[in-house]
Amino acid sequence: MRTDRHTTALAWLLLLPALVLLSAFTYWPMVASLWRSLHLEAPGVPATFAGTEQLAALVDDPVFRQALRNNLWYAAVTVPLSVGLALGMALWVNGKFAGRGLMRLAFFTPTVLPMVAAANVWLFFYAPDIGLLNRALAAFGVAGPNWLGDTATALPAVMVVTVWKEAGFFMIFYLAALQSLSPEQLDAARLEAPSRWFRFRHVVWPLVAPTTLFVAVNALINAVKLVDHLFVLTRGGPSNASTLLLYHLYEAAFKFHDTGYAATLTLVLLALLAACSAGQFFLSRRIHYR
């Protein structure tokens, strides 16, 4: 019994650092956000219980509705594009050819760039008069648009930067999954089906499905928590055409100092992420884990 007590005490001591960090930086902020979302606060005035008033104000806010639509559209485009491009690049550099190492390095390089630095690079590409894209279009006699200053192109321009930044990172996971496949299974598939598409569809794709789930969940989380690129590229403009939920939360908390509204928006973000992740894991029951 003494040995069991010592083992239990040792286990809790080993868990204590993680529990302290999770409590301080995850659980307590969640509880504080819930409390702030239910109260109205002002400098020098005691907090008063407001119930669901903050949530009603959030639903009635046209900027929130615009940011929500933008984020849904942003996630619907960037997640499948990033995942598909990452898989395609991994299949390419998984083969044996001269310069394979340089190709892998080229695909992965955008990942190691800081987000602000990457956004500044693309800011030069998108510049209306001297930008690389408009210069290239001008060579063919086409007048390029103001990519970041037009409501029709601002959000797609940010999407391009995100896909360019994330695809190389997700490629690494797919490359690791492809290199862990059994050579015997691949050789048997080559004998049974000479078509590359058939082998990919019925052999490779099911075997890398766990990696696809992992990458898709991370891509979705990244789509919701994006804020760095918006600071440099658009600051949510023009006319909130590129405002996303986390950037709207930042403005509410640190620009307008509306902590109650920001706390309510935080809970909405957590609920959306939890719902999306639960849906993805529900669909993952058909995934085969080796």
TrEMBL record:
Name this polypeptide is given: ABC transporter permease
Alphabetized UniProt keyword annotations: Cell membrane, Membrane, Transmembrane, Transmembrane helix, Transport
PANTHER family: ABC TRANSPORTER PERMEASE PROTEIN, INNER MEMBRANE ABC TRANSPORTER PERMEASE PROTEIN YCJO
Membrane topology: Multi-pass membrane protein
Transmembrane segments: 72-93, 105-127, 198-221, 261-283
Protein family (similarity comment): Belongs to the binding-protein-dependent transport system permease family.
Gene Ontology CC: plasma membrane
GO biological process terms on file: transmembrane transport
Pfam families in the cross-refs: BPD_transp_1 (PF00528)
Annotated compartments: Cell membrane
Main location: membrane
Taxonomic placement: Bacteria, Pseudomonadati, Pseudomonadota, Betaproteobacteria, Burkholderiales
SUPFAM superfamilies with a match to the protein in the record: MetI-like
